[in-house]
Amino acid sequence: MGDSSFSFSPMRPAVLVVAAGRGTRLGGGLPKQYRGLGGEPVLRHTLRALLAHPLLRQVMVVIHPNDEALYRDAVGELPLLPPVQGGAERQESVLNGLEALAALDPAPTHVLIHDAARPDLPIGVIDRLIGATVSAPAAIPVLPIVDTVKRADGVEITGTEDRKTLFRAQTPQAFQFGPLLAAHRAAKGLLLTDDAAVAERAGHKVIRVPGDPALEKITTATDLIAAEARRQAPGAPPQEVFRVGTGFDVHRLVPGDGMTLCGVSIEGTLALSGHSDADVGLHTITDALLGAVASGDIGSHFPPTEPQWKGADSEIFLIEAARQVWLAGGRIENVDVTLICERPKIGPHRPAMRARIATILRLPIDRVSVKATTTERLGFPGRGEGIAAQAAVSVAFPKAVTRRS
User: Fold this and answer.
1) From 3.30.1330.50, 3.40.50.300, 3.20.20.70, 3.50.50.60, which CATH number describes the 240-398 domain?
2) pTM of the full predicted structure?
3) Residue 140 C-beta-side C-alpha neighbours within 13 Å
4) What does DSSP assign to residue 360?
5) CATH assignment of 13-232, given 3.40.50.720, 3.90.550.10, 3.30.1340.30, 3.30.470.10?
6) Residue 240's pLDDT is what?
7) Are strands 386-398 and 331-340 parallel, antiparallel or unpaired?
8) Which tens digit of pLDDT belongs to each residue from 228-250?
9) Are 371 and 388 in contact (CB under 8 A)?
10) pLDDT for 6-50, tens place per residue?
11) CA-to-CA distance for 48 and 199, rounded, in angstroms?
């Protein structure tokens, strides 16, 4: 997002992992997605890389009809949607998967389609794709071609291409869901090279984002050896820098039938007054995350003067703040929020609050702290007129990453 022209709409991205191929060029009989890599199947590495991203909660794998036992052994207890059987060609496999995703309630708004044999997936590539498809129908990661590219007729060289306009396409490729499903249905039976080609055929605009050299596809035995070597190479972990963000918010208590606080519904005779649902806990965490990446405050992203936010669930605000962190290359490390009030009593609700915040931000629960205090009956919280909250968050960035202006 990052500018005032962005209009928020909740994003429900799903992932389709294509794992129905036979991988004959690798040799050895076993399909490459089930071959061992660092002591685990290639497919499991790929799925873990996808599930590590906080926005990717619906992941489905398209498998060969003969591979059900291999698939079960490979994925174990990973939280995945039920697998779908693939077809004779990759394009048919993808269409089968898209139809299965379309049957979900609600259906996804966006979809990322990824090759099972690309296990080394940097989270930054996912961030760039998701950010691009907020406004564009399709986006793919690419790498520039550094070698001179020649045309040939048999053994004879017939020309030289301008490599400045040529790129190597990678996966995952990201799409707005509805248009891609329609494009795949219209292209049924054709043999196109990737899903971006399906979108191109339908006239959709496809934009490029930077790929990553680590995102190599395992095709041959040499590729598998190289992927194994990357896991065994010695070296210190990448250096990181940390930023701290803080937030503070206040909402008035008014007569009502309960409130939402830190994402948890609390019954009672009081409510919190505000333009949205007035969840003072989630609001202050939202501001803290936006502060960590110098991306304004909750009011600049969700102005209280705009009617679309009237009564809005504050989870929307927190998810957007987290997205700002991810797009800036950051990783949320922990959240610490303090609620300042005489009522309601926070203690009975604390476990549910911690769990809700952890779920929204995809954090382990031991990295989320919810505390409560009073002001010894001093000031407006002490008089029971309102609730205040303050929060602190820490965000880790690779040392080379700087916030975009």
Assistant:
1) 3.30.1330.50
2) 0.59
3) 21
4) H
5) 3.90.550.10
6) 67
7) antiparallel
8) 777 765 554 445 688 999 999 99
9) no
10) 333 468 899 999 999 876 555 545 788 988 887 788 999 999 999
11) 27
